[in-house]
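It is time I had a proper look at our fold encoding. Can you supply me with one protein entry, sequence and fold together? It will help me judge whether the discrete encoding reads sensibly. Leave the record below and I will have a look:
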Amino acid sequence: MTRVKICGIMNRQDLNLCVKAGVHTLGFVVDYPEWVPWNLSPAQARQLIAAVPPMVCSCVVTGGSAEKIIAVAQAARPDIIQLHHRETLDETAKIAVRLRRQGIKTIKALRIDEEGRCAFEIPDPATAAQALHSAGIAALLVDSYTSTLAGGTGVKVDLKTFSAIDRVSRLPLILAGGLNPDNIRAIVENVNPYAVDVLTGVEDHPGRKNPEKVNRFINNLRPLGHNIQY
């Protein structure tokens, strides 16, 4: 089974819902540098992360300067930090090295706009992915980018772009952007990502997950026959 991350967790009810459904990783947006409706403080995130059971990972999604991100990681203590803003290659490498010493892994998001360019110092997605091999990160996340919302856009990434990144990347690739219970099976069968990351596609509104959508999202992946690996 393809691994599943559900992001934008803001309360214990949704945390428990996702754990019971079989989600592999829970995502918490913390001190994001632009307005997003899922933002938590490090203290709020740490309380929720403390409730994540064994065999389920916690991931803090944030962005900004290296020192700010490291401070967020130290305060919230997740398993993973996901860099989801405009961190440079050098900043990403610095963060990954510092966090690895604390037992925290780093994911870097490549956010792709409607013209197929990265919101990154290297605009070509495949070239950016190759450059990030040397940064010491654990995985790449490929997401959509719009000028109006930093994350949770509900906009799908072009799957040809994702496949082009996959052909050159030596890192596990996570697919995000516009995923929902109705399209997830066909998308995974098409591009076979290491993991998928969903936010708005399983929500009633920001801060409240929909139990039927969460369970249907997971159940629509189970028949694909991939081995579950934690």
Remarks:
- The first strand starts at residue 3 and ends at 6.
- Confidence is low (pLDDT under 50) at residues 225-230.
- Helices lie at 12-21, 42-49, 66-76, 89-100, 125-131, 159-168, 184-191, 211-219.
- The beta strands are 3-6, 25-29, 57-62, 80-83, 105-112, 139-144, 173-176, 195-198, 203-205, 208-209.
